[in-house]
Amino acid sequence: MASSRLKYLSLGVLVFQTTSLVLTMRYSRTLQAEGPRYLASSAVVVAEVMKILTCVLLVFKEHSYSMRALNSILRQEIAHKPMETLKLAIPSGIYTLQNNLLYVALSNLDAATYQVTYQLKILTTALFSVSMLGRRLGVYQWLSLLILMAGVALVQWPSESAAAPEKEALSAGSQFVGVTAVLVACCSSGFAGVYFEKILKESKQSVWVRNIQLGMFGLVFGLFGMLAYDGERVKESGMFQGYNTITWTVVALQALGGLVIAAVIKYADNILKGFATSLSIILSTLISYFWLQDFDPTGVFFLGAILVIVATFLYGYEGKPSPNPSRA
Fold first, then answer.
1. Domain residues of the chain, as ranges?
2. What band does 40 get if pLDDT is binned at 50, 70 and 90?
3. Over the stretch 80-102, which tens digit does the pLDDT of each residue have?
4. Using an 8 Å Cβ cutoff, are 43 and 234 in contact?
5. Buried b vs exposed e over 207-245: b needs ≥16 C-beta within 10 Å?
């Protein structure tokens, strides 16, 4: 009974985290407020700091709240194994790029379209698993990938609009930027997830320690990116310009993502994880339409969304997929 409760609790938290992150991120990037808008590069940096602190606390708890044990394990696994630590620089840099791209995507796409299109990470993860890990996919999984591609193509199918020509052109340009950002994020998510999984399988270290190592590099890459792209704005108005309650909520939800995925992988199976993803897509679509009012659903969109949901379930039906087990 306890195991069953943990399973459904972790899935419930996953649905909440995935849906609320997408919606609050979209809302924060489109909210009209006085003063400068918060910097996405800054939010990525703060999220990395939160992840590192959370993982340090989890390692601290694993070692019975002993400061001596915590210091020993961090020195042993990070300072004394520089080559092992450096291996994580590659996925960390890619994750940092991916996190920045998601802000770009949700600045240009409605939450529903983003949610459905982002499921292409299942395809990229599967392809990288086959090429990098030598994993074999079953018939149901290959079929699900074909259905997934068809579903995403339908979601992106252009629809007739009665909008003004200039507004329509602006919308088309924004949609292209948003879709491109999502596609690159899907590729980076697939590669980095499989690369990180390979590292985890080759070592027996705690996943939280590995996340601390990832976070350290992510913090460095994030700071470099923030100074390179937004350095002038940071000097002018500070790193935390435009921050409000919504911004801090987005940052906290993004930091929580990897920990939630780890819990779901530990306590739930692939079918239930697919159910959580599907429920998140449906909730994002409804809230995007009724609350954010930035989405006009069409019959083609709903057909594509249904195909993506079916593909998500089907992929988890046979064999084990290879999602990133500890990082969103």
1. 38-107+206-267, 110-158+269-318
2. very high
3. 888 878 888 998 999 899 989 99
4. no
5. bbbbbbbbbbbbbbbbbebbeeebeebbeeeebebbbee
